[in-house]
Structure formats: C-alpha cells, structure tokens
Design goal:
It is a single chain. By secondary structure, this protein is mainly alpha-helical. It has 3 domains: 132 residues, no CATH class; 161 residues, no CATH class; 27 residues, no CATH class. Helix content is 69%, strand content 5%. It is built from 16 helices and 4 strands. It has a two-stranded antiparallel sheet with strand order 1-2. The protein is flat and about 80 Å long.
C-alpha cells in the first residue's frame, strides 16, 4: 500500500491557497500572451459589468469628496495612501517568519507615520492652521509642532531604527533586512506621489482634479477601445493592452482635455487663465472668432502626457506584478484589483502636473498676490502684525521724505 505523505490541510494553509487563487496568475496565463486580449475573453461582458459598477461607485464617492472641499480631498488622499502602503507591505510578507517576529508589522507602520509627519508637516506648514481655525490655543499648539517638526521626525525615526536593531534575531537577519529595505522603498514610492498630489491640492483644487480626471478618462477609453477593437498586443508585460486601445485612448484623452474646459462646466473666480481669448477662425474673416481659455492650452499638454507617458506607470506596475507572480496588488475594488492598481498611472501624473504647474503656470516674477500668499502661509499671526507695523513705518517715512 502506498503511503500518503501529504500534510493534513489546516485553516492557515487553506487561507494561503485562497490568496493564491485570487491574486496569482493562472499557470497558462503566465506562459502565453496572445489569447489574453479582451476580444478573445469569453467572460469579458461580465468583467465589464463588474468594472462599470465599481467605477460608478468610485466616481460618485470622488465627486462627493470634491464637493465637500479641500480638507476632505486631503483626507481621501491620506486614506488611499494608507491602503496602498498596506497592500505593498503585505506583498513580500511571509506568515511563517512573521510568527517569530512579534511587533514587526507595528515597526513598519511606525516608519510609515513618521514619514507622513515629515512630508505633510512641510507641505501643510501654516496653510492648514490659517485656513481651519482662529483659535489662539490651537494655533500656538500646531505652530510649535510645525516649528519642531524636523526634530520630532528625526528622533521618531531614530527610535524606529533602534527598535529594528534590538529585534534582530539569529537565522532571520536576511528576512528582516529585506523587509527593512522594502519598507523604505514603499515609503519613497508612496510619499513621493502623495506629496505632489497634496501640493497640487493646495495650488488649487483644479490642478488636482484635472490631472486625476485625465488619467481616469484615459483608463476608461483604453479599456473600451481595447474591449471592442483590440487585436494587436501592445506590450508583453501587460498582455491585455493593445495598440488599438492605446491609440484610441490617446486621441480621446487629448481631445477631452482641450474641449471639456470650453463647455462651461467650470465656475470659479476667473483669473487670467480662465478668461477667454478670441482667435479668428478664418484669417480672411475677422468676424468669425473662437473663444479659447488659456488654461485649455495647458490642459492639452497635460492630456498628451496622461495619454502617452503616464500609461508607462501602469506598464511598470504590470511588470512588477509579473516579477512576483501576482495578478493584482489587492482585491479591495471588484474588477479593478487593489488601490495600488488604480493609482499606478496617477503617481506619474501627479509629479508631472506639479512640475508643469510650477514651471509654466505659476508667474516667475513677484506679484502682490504671490507675496501676500507667501506672507499668509509662512508667517504666524504675530509675525504678520509685526510686518504690518514695520511696513507702515517705512511707508510713512517715505511719504514724509517726499514732502
């Protein structure tokens, strides 16, 4: 009689098998690319329905947050960032090793919140205090926190560093140092994009909304063009992407970026970028003019980037997932995977949007508005009063000097 050497099934092993079934590539899918196009997928209509329902739910939630204002948008970014970090932390986790390292996950989150305090403390500075409250006690508390923010962050990181050294265990050094390096890479990736995203929010909600919406438009257009017309594989590391979807999405996104702002949906205090300029439609007939907002030209460049360059963030994520033989980073969004799967292109776009805004939109020379904004965001209330008194004295001296 042949002896059965297989180990008995346990709840832990059952959960592990379930995770593999839901998150890893099927064996045949990792070997071939040609048959994975959406046009050849027999379950594509069911998949489209699931993705559509999830997308509508996300769109409704996103619009609600935008309606509530800047602070709620900031809170949404922070929540998304936490879920992304959680998905990435779990990517290289090994349950067997973690059993022998109690508190090791807590150490990862200690580094995470230290990085959050460091990055957001510098971005928010006094903007949040001046916007949210006029209460003197709260103002002084937060002002002191911001003043000593770098010291607090430094010693918090040093505490985590010492914590890590003290928890090193024999025969687990390689795993622990691997997790230490992986944690720091996650912090760099997550906080780089989130820092630029938050900076865009405080430059004006428009500069957060436009880049994010262009990525969403490009994703939806690429999916539908590939769904109905995709026949030519685009790139091997992302086998369901097609040239038809890529080109169709590029055209649709670029047109959408330029045209949507001319439809009148944008209602705000019209600065120079949002005041129409008139161009003759026919050179020989000056009376035929077309109104174009200056911001539409900026939107056109953002649209080109969102449709041609930003998708490579998705390709990078696809290659990364294939390197670790997983299908998605998580399963928090039905039909889409995890939040990291949805934010791969947004990461690239947020950085470009901020750099473009600072380089080509923000006035390079000083104006009264920029100086006032800098004063209100950088000086405390007491410092602003001192500046007011000194500026008044200087103006009086100049006026009496002329007389």
């Amino acid at each position: 009689m042949q002896k059965d050497n297989s180990a008995p099934s346990t709840p832990t092993s059952a959960r592990a098998r379930h995770r593999r079934r839901s998150n890893e590539f099927p064996a045949d899918e990792s070997k071939t690319n040609g048959h994975l196009l959406l046009v050849n997928d027999h379950n594509k209509y069911r998949s489209m329905w699931i993705r559509a329902c999830s997308s509508l739910w996300m769109l409704g939630f996103f619009l609600l947050v935008i309606y509530l204002g800047h602070l709620y948008v900031l809170a949404m970014v922070v929540i998304i960032q936490i879920f992304m970090a959680r998905e990435l932390f779990n990517l290289l986790r090994k349950a067997h090793e973690d059993k022998h390292l109690p508190g090791f996950r807590l150490l990862n989150w200690h580094f995470y919140f230290t990085a959050m305090l460091f990055v957001y403390g510098r971005i928010l500075s006094h903007r949040l205090v001046n916007t949210v409250t006029s209460d003197k006690i709260f103002y002084r508390l937060v002002s002191r926190l911001i003043k000593y923010q770098m010291v607090i962050c430094y010693f918090s990181y040093i505490a985590g560093f010492m914590w890590f050294i003290l928890t090193l265990k024999k025969k687990m050094y390689k795993y622990q140092f691997g997790q230490f390096a992986w944690t720091h890479m996650i912090l760099i990736v997550v906080f780089t994009q989130s820092a630029f995203t938050v900076a865009n929010i405080f430059e004006g909600i428009f500069w957060f909304l436009l880049p994010a919406s262009l990525i969403a438009v490009n994703d939806v257009a690429a999916y539908f063009f590939g769904f109905f017309f995709g026949k030519t594989p685009l790139i091997k590391i992302s086998p369901k992407k097609t040239w038809e979807g890529f080109i169709g999405a590029s055209v649709a996104t670029t047109i959408s970026a330029f045209v949507d702002l001319s439809t009148g949906w944008l209602h705000c205090d019209p600065g120079p970028l949002f005041k129409p300029e008139y161009y003759p439609l026919l050179p020989w007939l000056p009376s035929t003019e077309i109104a174009i907002l200056p911001v539409q030209w900026h939107a056109l460049w953002l649209g080109l980037f969102a449709s041609i360059i930003a998708p490579f963030g998705g390709f990078f994520a696809s290659g990364f997932k294939r390197a670790f033989k997983i299908k998605d980073f998580g399963d928090s969004i039905p039909g889409h995977g995890g939040l990291t799967d949805r934010m791969d292109c947004q990461m690239v776009m947020a950085v470009f949007a901020y750099i473009y805004h600072q380089s080509f939109v923000v006035p390079q020379d000083y104006t009264v508005e920029t100086i006032m904004s800098e004063i209100l965001s950088s000086l405390t209330l007491e410092e602003q009063q001192i500046l007011y008194m000194k500026l008044g004295q200087i103006l009086q001296e100049r006026m009496f000097g002329r007389n």
